[in-house]
Amino acid sequence: MSKDLTRRELMLRSITAGGLFAAGSLMPVSSALANQAAGQSTTQTDAHVPATIVDGKVVQPRRELPVLQKTSILVVGGGPAGTAAALSAKRLGVDVTLVERYGYLGGLATGGLVLGIFPLYDRDKKQVIYGIGEELMKKLDVLKFGIIDRNKAPVYPTIDAEAFKYVLADMVLDSGINAYLDCWGVDAIVDAKGAVRGAVFESKSGRKAILADIVIDASGDGDIYAAAGAAFEKVKTNIGLISRIGNIDEVDMAVGRGSEDPEHPVTGQPGTGRPSKGRVNDLNGHAGNSTPAPHVNWLNMKGPVGDALDVADLTAMELKHRRGTWGNVEKLRQKPGNEQVYLAETAPQLGVRLSRLLDGVKKLTVQDIRGGAKYKDVIGYSGAYANAPEFQIPYGSLVPSKVENVLAAGRCISTDFQVGDITRLIPVCWVTGQAAGLAAALCIQDRCKPRNVSVTKLQNLLHQQGAYLG
Amino acid sequence: MTFLRRVPRRVIQLTCFVGAVVLVWPVLPWAIAPRVFVQASPFVALASSIATRSISLGVVFAVIVAVASSFKKRWFCLYLCPTGFLLENASHMGLRKSRWWDKCPPVGKYVAILTLVGAVAGYPVLLWMDPLCIFSSPFAVNKATNSISVILVCLGLGLLVAGTLVFGMLWCVRICPLSGLQDMLFAARKALWTRLTVTAPARKFQVARRVFFAGSGGALLALWARRAGAARYRGSDTLLRPPGAVPEDRFTGLCIRCNNCVHACPSKIIHPDTGHEAGLAGFGAPIIRYDADYKYCLETCNACTQVCPTGALTPLDLQPKNKYIIGEALVDNNVCLTALGKKECDACELACPYDAVKITWDEEQYIAYPVVNDKCTGCGACEVVCPTTPVKAIRVWTQKPA
Asked: What are A383-404's pLDDT values in tens digits?
């Protein structure tokens, strides 16, 4: 023990005395992989200054962060909203950098196994979400086992996670976006006037900065706008973990598909009878829902209410959900006909539904959507969900009420809790992502702040990219 | 001279007929007009007041009608009754012109006695034979969701018109309980008058045989029907009555099938029963079915409870109406998309206007499913949004004691 301590102290001293090598700077994926030979090894000592203990308190020494990149638009988060923002902005010829925490793109739609693409349709079963989302689905259409149930309203499409990872990787590689994966955006860079100038992220290359004119916070949790001092509402809701199970017959009990089938599990049991009050029925084994992969179902999980910004909660969920899912699949196997069911995978990412909700220029409330509110700055629609009709999303719900140079996209935009429960869904994230990307590009082109973007120009651009605005 | 005397009656009749249509439609901004219209019948007012042991302000008109009719024989029939007007005109076009019904006994009187004695026992047996109620019924036709409902709401008046075309004025003269009651009122007033003005030895009180049979028949029928109704309710899983409905044992008797509630419902969820829910006794009485798109018993509406002329649906203000239990929502986890991990669905929880449904995480089973608490009124908001098919995972069932 004492030997260890001495060694650590020794190391500390030697490092504070001065670094030997500068850390190798990261290059965007597009060029980084090209000129590297395997097996090269050099002895290095990191120039990094670690945290230390001063008067019993852990202290991070003040230090300069290397600037990895200067860019026009920085998109933090490579989920549905982030990729939509980056792809649509890049098409206007603007310099775009995309930072993603995991090693793949698609966020919850791929890593979270949220494979159901809904809500896409209005009450009259008309599709109201197009634009980049429709484009992505069209790319999936041509892939074998890429997507099922396209254009079968009110049944909504289900995608394959790997197919979607492939589509996004393909598009981002071809787009010229500077993408950094395995990079966790952790802080905002804010200038003396309080305006956002970029973001700090952690990666295997250490803590680095990316300077940007406009930052799009598509982190899902609003990490960047929160760090920059934007006001937000913190909410707690259920956190689950989706999984995929194999060797299970396809079953769909939602409206439409399969209901005419005499072999349909519910049709086969007409009027299942009066359920007993306050008692949980034994599940009959029809778990999960079909995916493009044959005999594979995706199994959703509601999960308990948790704090998505608390690492203890997240850890507990990660562990308990995986144990619980294994147990449920074992239970499922006990049902006749399900003996060969196996757990194919649990999602790499927890299914965090909502955490932070921005206080934006316009906070979209449940009264607004019930009343069918119309907005001059409409940037797209959400489809009808449960008893909520389709509704317009205003640009104001992407813009923080006070902090400059940052836009929210995805589930962390400015809504109340009930509306957030709809705007968090995959296709709506495509809508807000695309709008945020185009608005940021307009800021660059017109040299203006996000709150001063010309709504007419933004709507024209959205139209040009095929978005539906009513 | 006769011509001049006839014309005013025609004019009064026509005016009353148009007035009745206006009241029942209802085109007036007076929501309870259809109720007041049917309540103007002394037969309905008297029997329902006895059966519910309460008097509504709406009986004022019935008292006026009753008093007038006791002085001029069948004054109401001759001048005011819109059904009578309709049937009188039908009889002019009909096959039989002779007064062959003179041979028929005055059935209406015994129907009235039977019903009134039944009302004392809480079940006004043949109250639905009231002519104003039969007139009111077809106006619900625009709320009919299928051809069977159309037939049901038009059945009463249709049969009367058809019957009159074939048999002449038999209904009005001999069968209608309202005219029977008027005859009794007239006779009673006369007897009383004679008693007061002419000094005669007091007559021995004697109940006519027919009156005795009608009365005791009414009492027996009422008791039997109430027992059967209670048993039927216990045995049913799907019988749902509109909000404010009195307990099932009395409901089918008090309900006169006027269809005012069917007509009043903005959600079109109230339907006349074809008999499959509550048998012959409940034929034509209103039931609730949640099968129209997204239509449930609105938390902003108490229209049906305001238009019932007999108190079969107790008049309730919005707040008590929203506490009235129509049924109970129960969840079948073997169908529920959330319980089976099929979809991201919390439609029922979102739809519930009373915070009665909560998707609840069950740590033991490691699944979530909707749990219904005792705030549930059975309004059906959850059932109509539940996306499963052909069976809904959450459905409103007849309430059972815990």
From this structure: 998 778 999 999 999 999 999 9
Please determine, for residue B52, whether its predicted confidence score (pLDDT) is greater than 90: no
Q: Which DSSP string do the residues of B72-119 spell out, in sequence order?
A: STTHIIIII-HHHHHHHHHHHHSS--S-GGGGS--HHHHHHHHHHHHH
Which residues of chain A make contact with B362, given a CB cutoff of 8 A?
280
In chain B, domain spans: 1-198+210-324, 325-402
CB of B101 less than 8 A from some CB of A: no
Using a CB–CB cutoff of 8 Å, tell me whether B317 touches chain A. Answer: no
Alpha helices in A255-354 (DSSP H): 311-333
- Cis amide linkage into residue B26, ω under 30° from 0: yes
Instruction: Give A113's contacts (C-beta < 8 A, 6+ positions apart).
Output: A161, A242, A243, A244, A298, A345, A347
Residue range A432-455: mean pLDDT, rounded? 97
The pLDDT-based confidence of A24 (bands split at 50, 70, 90) is very low
Domains in chain A: ranges and CATH = 68-118+161-235+356-464 (3.50.50.60), 238-258+286-352 (no CATH)
* ipTM of the prediction greater than 0.85, yes or no: no
Contact indicator for B102, B180 with CB cutoff of 8 Å: no
Is B100 within 8 Å of chain A by CB?
Answer: no
Per-residue pLDDT tens digits for B278-334? 888 888 899 999 876 778 999 999 999 998 999 899 999 999 999 999 999 998 887
Residues of A in contact with B390 (CB under 8 A): 259, 266-267
Q: Report pLDDT for A267.
A: 40
CA–CA min distance B350, chain A (Å): 7
Name the CATH topology of B325-402.
Answer: Alpha-Beta Plaits (3.30.70)
Residues on chain B touching A266 (C-beta within 8 angstroms): 335, 388-391
Per-residue confidence band for A32, with pLDDT thresholds at 50, 70 and 90: low
